[in-house]
Amino acid sequence: MNTLEGVLLYTHYKNLLETEDKKYAWKILHEFFEAFDEEGPEETLWFMLASVMKLESGDVDGKERGNMIFFYEYSVALFKAAYVLYKHHYDKKKTINANDANEYE
Fold first, then answer.
1. Can you list the alpha helix ranges (DSSP code H) found in the chain?
2. Do the beta carbons of residue 57 and residue 34 sit within 8 Å?
3. Single pTM value for the model
4. What is the per-residue pLDDT for 46?
């Protein structure tokens, strides 16, 4: 079971896994950034990281904490890059569609 079942993003994800067609990757980015704004992924990851860091567990040692911070920083960079690509792609698409619409007026 996947927590995304019933959500359109899950369908796109399954299709991406089956076909590796980049149109599904773009659809996933679109769905993702419709659900989260530009800062949303960073804020959510930070909340998760801060929550884990507060745990007093012997299971999470210094090395694991360092790995989590490293993963957080890489993830923030990845989400920012994905957001920039997404915005560029969809802003360009909107401009093309607007120009096509103006052509017929």
1. 8-19, 22-35, 40-54, 62-103
2. no
3. 0.74
4. 94
